[in-house]
Structures are given as C-alpha cells and as structure tokens.
C-alpha cells in the first residue's frame, strides 16, 4: 500500500490571527518531537499553512500513532505525492482507488487547484480524473452527493497530493500555547483525564500528588508515577511533585470536626498546590472534580474549598459523569492503571457523614483555631520531592530533583 506523505490539518490555531505564527511554531516543535524516533521522516511547511510529513520509507502506521499525540492536529491523511502533471495525477488516482480491499461502488472527485498555472481548470480535472477512473475500475459509479469514497486532489506549485482518507487527530491547541498549570493528580480515574483535557487546551502541566506514607504504600506511589508517564507521552516529559501529607492528615483527624475533615483537607491541598505553582511559574490549578460525584464535589463544597486558592481553579470534568469520563480514560490508556486497587491519601480518614453544605465562616473559624496549619503547609511544600517523568519505560531517566 503506497503512502508517500502524511498531510496535516490544524483546527483552532488557524483562527488565531496575529498569534497564528506562534501557535504554528509550537505545533512544529511537538511534531518534530514525536517523529524523532522515525529518523528518515521529514516535516515540510508550505505557504497557505499546509504542512506534510514525507515518510521516506518510514512506517505510516508508526507515524500515525506518533502524530495522534500532537495536540492542535485536527486530522491527517495518508497521501501520494506526485508532480503537478495530468498523467501523474491520473496514475496516482488509480493507485488510491485500489488502496481498499473492498472496492467502493460510488465515488466522487474533489479537486483543489492552488496552482493557477496548471493547464486544466478545476472542472476539467473532475472530468479528466473521474473519466480515467471509470475507464480502468469496473463497477464504479459517480455519486456527487453521497459517495462511498471521495477522492481528493490538491494541485500545488511544486507537488500535487492525492488522498481519500482522513484520520482524526486530538484537536485542541498546541501544548504549552496557553501557559502552565498544576494538575492535582490522584490515583483515580478522573484526574488523569482532567490532565489530558487541560493539555488538549494548550496547557503544559506539572502534576502534584499527595501521599500519606506509611498509610499509603509504595505501590500507590508507583501507580501515580505510571499515570504521569502515560500523560508524558503527550508532553515529552512532566514534572511530578510528591507532597508528604501524613502529618497534616493526622492532625486534622485529631483537631477538627469529623464532618469537616474532607473540606479542610482539600483546602490544605489547594494551598500547597498554589505555593508550588508560584515556585514553578504556573498560573492555575487543574483538578478532576465532577459536580456532585462525591461529597467534596457538591457546589457548596467546591465553593468553600476553591476559596482557599487565589489563582484560578480549572475543572475540565465539572459537568461530566463517569459514563463520559471512562471512555476518555480508556482511549488515553490511563484507565487500566487507575483501577488498580492501591489507595491514595484521599481515601484515608473519610468520615461516615462528610458535610455536603459547609459554611465558609465555620470552616475559616476552624482553620483559625489550628495555629499549626500554616507551618505544616510550609513544611509540606519544602519537603516535596520532584521527579521528571518521561514516556519511556521505567528507566534511569526518571529522577529526583
């Protein structure tokens, strides 16, 4: 099956006006990163925003898999590249029509003629290519409204492209084009999906995980490292901040009202994450909260907890339920890791009847009584370990800072 090049299409970045060049440069960097293992593949950029990858013998399947990790890429097409000459285009059209084991019964030809010096206009090319195909492929009919296969032909100045297939990309914005945020990453299903969706909107993320050793195991820690590694497949690398939270949790258990433990714990987490964000030049916090899913995610609790942070708190999953979240987790390959039965600190000391409608004044009064809390938060930030996680299999490249 012949594939010379892969045509690339971009979504929202094409609407960015004066910032478009910046967005294009960022997506070029990401494309080159994911294609680095395919040494012979080359990225080409033409006028009018067209980019394509010349495979030069590299595997199309491997290139497609790599490009599926590039945010901002709307779709790709495996294509045949030929000279802008009628005979070459007719031959390529036949090759493309014979690409499929099950032959279509109907087709149409769509021509885009960028090269205005080409001797045949668009309408002539429809007839010249469509007629050539009908002469050489049995059992075909033209259907311009609902064809089983649409053959696309782009005639440009130096080259022409023939293709019939579009493969969806992840869409969104190029990674890092909208700044940096801190992802509060638990070991559950939701927060990795929130991280993926945040990256899709152009955020570069750093992950923050709270652990309560010895109440949580090394396996729980490894589970979060593995989740970060999957997300790093889309980013090249991600810094993971491992925050010791045992002391704060145990003191909260000893000194505050039982039904407010979850609310106070989450507020402490927000404050720690915000301080880490300031150190890492991040401008927001990303969480996996979904409205009404658990006691701490009622609107009242979200309001009280969210006020602990002064920077924006982004909740990509806030209106989604598990039936919508799980398919995304399966697609990005975090789901099998997320369901491993290793508890994180959020499952510890959970009261039987947590408050679903806490009073902000009561919560703030409770915190004012806990004179130890600011120092405990400062110590947790100071003792936080940072790991650089890369997408490769566990190796020496994962290391502490």
TrEMBL record:
EC id: 2.8.1.4
Gene Ontology biological process terms from the UniProt entry: thiamine biosynthetic process; thiamine diphosphate biosynthetic process; thiazole biosynthetic process; tRNA 4-thiouridine biosynthesis
Main localization category: cytoplasm
Keyword Nucleotide-binding found: yes
Record has Amino-acid biosynthesis as a keyword: no
InterPro entries documented for this protein: Rossmann-like_a/b/a_fold (IPR014729), ThiI_AANH (IPR020536), ThiI_fer (IPR054173), ThiI_N (IPR049961), THUMP_dom (IPR004114), THUMP_ThiI (IPR049962), tRNA_STrfase (IPR003720), tRNA_sulfurtransferase_ThiI (IPR050102)
Organism superkingdom: Bacteria
Reactions accelerated catalytically: [ThiI sulfur-carrier protein]-S-sulfanyl-L-cysteine + a uridine in tRNA + 2 reduced [2Fe-2S]-[ferredoxin] + ATP + H(+) = [ThiI sulfur-carrier protein]-L-cysteine + a 4-thiouridine in tRNA + 2 oxidized [2Fe-2S]-[ferredoxin] + AMP + diphosphate; [ThiS sulfur-carrier protein]-C-terminal Gly-Gly-AMP + S-sulfanyl-L-cysteinyl-[cysteine desulfurase] + AH2 = [ThiS sulfur-carrier protein]-C-terminal-Gly-aminoethanethioate + L-cysteinyl-[cysteine desulfurase] + A + AMP + 2 H(+)
Transmembrane segments: none
UniProt keywords, alphabetically: ATP-binding, Cytoplasm, Nucleotide-binding, RNA-binding, Thiamine biosynthesis, Transferase, tRNA-binding
Biological or metabolic pathway of the protein: Cofactor biosynthesis; thiamine diphosphate biosynthesis
Residues annotated as binding ATP: 184-185, 209-210, 266, 288, 297
Localization in the cell: Cytoplasm
Domain THUMP: 61-166
GO CC entries: cytosol
GO molecular function: ATP binding; CCA tRNA nucleotidyltransferase activity; tRNA binding; tRNA-uracil-4 sulfurtransferase activity
PANTHER family for the chain: TRNA SULFURTRANSFERASE
HAMAP family linked: ThiI
Annotated function: Catalyzes the ATP-dependent transfer of a sulfur to tRNA to produce 4-thiouridine in position 8 of tRNAs, which functions as a near-UV photosensor. Also catalyzes the transfer of sulfur to the sulfur carrier protein ThiS, forming ThiS-thiocarboxylate. This is a step in the synthesis of thiazole, in the thiamine biosynthesis pathway. The sulfur is donated as persulfide by IscS.
Family according to the record: Belongs to the ThiI family.
Name recorded for this polypeptide: Probable tRNA sulfurtransferase
Gene (name only): thiI
């Amino acid at each position: 099956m012949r594939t010379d090049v892969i045509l690339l299409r971009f979504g929202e970045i094409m609407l960015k006006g004066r910032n478009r060049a910046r967005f294009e440069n960022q997506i070029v960097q990401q494309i080159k990163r994911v294609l680095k293992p395919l040494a012979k593949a080359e990225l080409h950029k033409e006028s009018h925003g067209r980019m394509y990858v010349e495979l030069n013998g590299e595997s199309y399947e491997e290139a497609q898999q790599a490009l599926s990790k590039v945010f901002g890429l709307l779709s790709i097409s495996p294509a045949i590249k030929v000279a802008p000459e009628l005979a070459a285009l007719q031959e390529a059209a036949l090759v493309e029509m014979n690409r499929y084991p099950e032959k279509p019964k109907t087709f149409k030809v769509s021509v885009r003629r960028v090269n205005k010096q080409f001797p045949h206009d668009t309408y002539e090319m429809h007839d010249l290519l469509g007629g050539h195909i009908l002469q050489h492929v049995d059992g075909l009919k033209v259907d311009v409204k609902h064809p089983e296969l649409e053959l696309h032909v782009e005639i440009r100045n130096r080259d022409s492209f023939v293709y019939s297939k579009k493969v969806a990309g992840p869409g969104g914005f190029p990674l890092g084009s909208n700044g940096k945020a801190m992802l509060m990453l638990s070991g559950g299903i939701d927060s990795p999906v929130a991280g993926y969706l945040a990256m899709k909107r152009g955020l570069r993320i750093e992950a923050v995980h709270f652990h309560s050793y010895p109440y949580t195991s090394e396996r729980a820690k490894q589970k979060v490292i593995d989740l970060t590694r999957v997300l790093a497949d889309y980013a090249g690398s991600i810094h993971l901040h491992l925050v010791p939270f045992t002391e704060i949790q145990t003191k909260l258990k000893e000194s505050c009202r039982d039904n407010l433990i979850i609310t106070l714990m989450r507020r402490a987490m927000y404050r720690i994450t915000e301080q880490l964000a300031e150190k890492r030049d991040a401008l927001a916090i990303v969480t996996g909260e979904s409205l009404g899913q658990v006691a701490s995610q009622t609107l009242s609790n979200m309001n009280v907890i969210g006020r602990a942070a002064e920077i924006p708190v982004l909740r990509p999953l806030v209106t989604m339920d598990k039936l919508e979240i799980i398919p995304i987790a399966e697609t990005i390959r975090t789901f099998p890791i997320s369901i491993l039965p290793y508890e994180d600190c959020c499952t510890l000391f959970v009261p039987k009847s947590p408050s679903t409608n806490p009073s902000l004044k009561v919560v703030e009064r409770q915190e004012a009584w806990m004179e130890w809390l600011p120092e405990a938060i400062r110590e947790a930030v100071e003792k936080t370990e940072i790991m650089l996680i890369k997408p490769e299999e566990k190796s020496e490249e994962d290391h502490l800072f």
